[in-house]
Amino acid sequence: MAEAVKLHVKKGDTVVVLAGKDKGKEGKVTAAFPKKSKVTVEGVNQVKRHTKPSQSNPQGGIITKEAPISVSNVMLVCPSCKKPTRIKKVAAGNGFVRACKKCGEVIDK
């Protein structure tokens, strides 16, 4: 099994997509998968699934949902300066927090 990698984004962060068919789109991270180095972003990389009728979905049909994309294809959007940015680790208290490289504002409150 692959080792879990420390991701630069967390669930709830706003990110912009850097590569792929949804390049330039912005959305919120709905799920993070560190072992696979992937994240699911709201409204990005939508795929259609054909489902058979079941008890929970008696009609069946085509369902649209978001598929995970590589974490290397997304960049965090700073909540204070509203620009896509890399992060830097800043010592705070007994650990480290994420901070914006452009404006220096702490992202993790």
From TrEMBL:
Family matches, as Pfam families: KOW (PF00467), ribosomal_L24 (PF17136)
Record-linked InterPro entries: KOW, Rib_uL2_dom2, Ribosomal_uL24, Ribosomal_uL24_C, Ribosomal_uL24_CS, Ribosomal_uL24_KOW, Translation_prot_SH3-like_sf
Residue ranges constituting the KOW domain according to the UniProt record: 8-35
The protein's role, per its UniProt record: One of two assembly initiator proteins, it binds directly to the 5'-end of the 23S rRNA, where it nucleates assembly of the 50S subunit. One of the proteins that surrounds the polypeptide exit tunnel on the outside of the subunit.
PANTHER family given in the database record: MITOCHONDRIAL RIBOSOMAL PROTEIN L24 (PTHR12903)
Record-linked NCBIfam families: rplX_bact
Official protein name in the record: Large ribosomal subunit protein uL24
